[in-house]
From TrEMBL:
One of its GO terms (biological process) is lipid biosynthetic process. FAD binds at residues 204-210, 217-220, 268-274. The record marks R319 as: Important for enzyme activity. One of its GO terms (molecular function) is alkylglycerone-phosphate synthase activity. This is FAD-binding oxidoreductase. Keywords: FAD, Flavoprotein, Oxidoreductase.
Length: 562
């Protein structure tokens, strides 16, 4: 036993936790109306693991002996279940394929180093054997960064950093913490909170992702408006390469040529194995509050978020959902009792009398942290802006509920797969001046793709993060494929996914705001950073890893690999 926590081999999260619609009476009618699926019909659960045909390990005796000498027998694992867990991330394509038993290339061995020296020994041994090394954190990646290339003939080693999970030290004067790269979000925050500190980074994958994974994919979190993205938070780091270690000190700023720190951020394992990082930390705030607001239209909500970004307010969260996502959120509510059951209908009646089209209304969550006086000042600024754009305050009750449930959303995708629907996400970022066209054209692209397939699909969106010059738009889509054949389902999925991603490029947005490139988004890399920019990236990767031993196949489009 390694003591490392893993997610389900077939889906998101841990065994025993799953999404259910039975306590949400409005959801089944909503899903039937939008995508024509009956939630009350019998579903198809994932297969038993024993029914999978797992390819045999190709680990040779020589490399096996070196790995066991370095780590100990207990931490070198060729068990079929462990190897399958480390084969895929948690993207839609990953889940369809693993449920179908589609396992063309499985890691031959999973290793669990306990410190950086052991990581160095593993890296050196694998590269000397001309093997392939794939770093593994929480396994929550959804862009194809963890899967071995199907045609890879060399031995494949999955390096699980789960034992490197400690906060090593805190520099209180600098507000910095040195943390091992394998620390999962909850474990990291528990250790920091016990000493009065927080990193404040809360991606949707928080419970099942690691510091190293956040750095390797340029992660963002729901509180990035205040704390910054991981590219702002991670200040120094250590990265193991064959025969050497990159050591970057946690400096507040530097002019030491092109930033090696920036090169490591988003490198997805192709520039080495991140073993630890110095990160910005903050004192646990005195107060934390998330308030719900309602805007009459999507345009009004976007305009308010833009004005808030330009104001003296500094909220931790700025989120607004479009009308489709708002309707979905309302369908997810559990039955209310007493006054709460009456409050919603009364409010909606009042708004209708004021001339609101409730089918266009957009729900927003804005978060605040700090001393009571600070919160009062922040809420006053935001309140005036919300009112200026026709919005109203719903209160902190819905905001608190959102805060409690924010990490549960990914479980819905497994539920959809069980009932025969495909659901996934694509997210992007663009300047404020481009957002409305980007939104409209992307929703249209998704709708056209559904029509092309002849399926009844649904797409929705929210603004998840605000910046000085623009914001992140996060799209979610779902549809029932017209086939039960997994390979054909994936083909239909790609019709929709490609339409959305191409819309990002056509509307001057990026291919990914925070899910990384992997293999899923690599096709559009040259459009995103230009062919010349791709030349620079390819040259960097080849100079560091000429043998393509470090997670080959990710980041670059296939025709740019050497």
């Amino acid at each position: 036993m390694t003591g490392v926590k893993h997610q389900k081999w077939w889906g998101w999260g841990v065994e025993g936790i799953a999404f259910t619609h039975e306590d949400k009476p409005k959801l089944a009618p909503f899903v039937m109306e939008k995508i024509g699926i009956d939630l009350n019909a019998p579903g198809t659960p994932p297969p038993a693991f024993e029914d999978l045909k797992v390819p045999a390990s190709q680990l040779d005796d020589d490399l096996a002996a070196k790995l066991r000498d370095a780590l100990g027998e207990q931490y070198v694992n060729t068990d079929d279940l462990d190897r399958v867990v480390h084969t895929y991330g948690k993207g839609l394509v990953d889940l369809v394929r693993v449920r179908a038993g589609d396992l063309p290339r499985v890691p031959d061995v999973v290793v669990y180093p306990g410190d950086e020296d052991q990581v160095r020994q593993v890296v050196d041994a694998v590269v000397a054997a001309d093997g392939v090394l794939i770093p593994f954190g929480g396994g929550s990646n959804i862009s194809g960064s963890l899967t071995p290339p199907p045609a890879e003939q060399r031995v494949v080693v999955s390096l699980d950093l789960g034992r490197l999970n400690r906060v090593l030290e805190i520099d209180e004067a600098a507000g910095l913490a040195r943390v091992q790269a394998g620390a999962l979000g909850p474990d990291l925050e528990d250790q920091l909170n016990a000493r009065g500190w927080t990193m404040g980074h809360q991606p949707d994958s928080f419970k099942h992702s690691t510091l190293g994974g956040w750095i390797a994919t340029r992660s963002s979190g729901m509180q990035s408006d205040k704390y910054g993205d991981i590219s702002d938070i991670a200040r120094g780091m250590r990265v193991v390469l064959p025969g050497k270690v990159i050591a970057l000190r946690p400096l507040p700023s530097t002019s030491s040529g092109p930033s090696v720190r920036e090169m490591i951020l988003g490198s997805e394992g192709r520039l080495g194995v991140i073993t630890e990082a110095w990160v910005n930390v903050h004192r646990v705030p005195e107060n934390r509050e998330i308030i719900a607001y309602l805007f009459p239209t999507w345009a009004a909500g976007i305009a308010a978020m833009h004005e808030i970004s330009e104001s003296d307010a500094s909220p931790t969260v700025t989120r607004v959902s479009d009308a489709n996502e708002t309707a979905f959120s309302l369908s997810m509510q559990k039955p209310s009792k007493g006054l709460a059951a009456k409050a919603g209908p009364i409010l909606f009646n009042v708004l209708e009398r004021r001339g609101w089209d409730l089918s266009a209304a957009c729900l927003s969550y804005i978060g605040y942290e700090g001393a009571e006086s600070h919160l009062k000042h922040q809420k006053a600024i935001v309140g005036k802006i919300v009112k200026k754009h026709g919005g109203i305050k719903l209160g902190n009750g819905p905001g608190a509920l959102y805060d409690q449930k924010k990490f549960d959303t990914p479980y819905i995708r497994d539920f959809l797969l069980d009932i025969g629907a495909l659901g996934d996400v694509s997210e992007t970022a663009a300047p404020w001046s481009k957002l409305m066209n980007l939104y409209a054209n992307t929703i249209r692209a998704a709708t056209d793709a559904f029509d092309e397939l002849g399926v009844k699909g649904f797409a929705m969106c929210h603004l998840s993060h605000s910046y000085h010059s623009g914001a992140c738009l996060y799209f979610t889509f779902a549809f029932p494929p017209s086939t039960d054949v997994p390979a054909e389902q994936i083909e239909q999925y790609w019709v929709v996914k490609k339409a959305i991603q191409q819309s990002f490029i056509d509307n001057e947005a990026t291919i990914s705001h925070h899910h990384g490139v992997g293999t899923d988004h690599a096709h559009w890399l040259e459009d995103d950073i230009s062919p010349a920019g791709t030349d620079v990236m390819a040259g960097l990767l080849e100079s560091v890893d000429p043998g393509r031993n470090l997670n080959p196949g990710t980041l670059l489009p296939a025709h740019r690999e050497w």
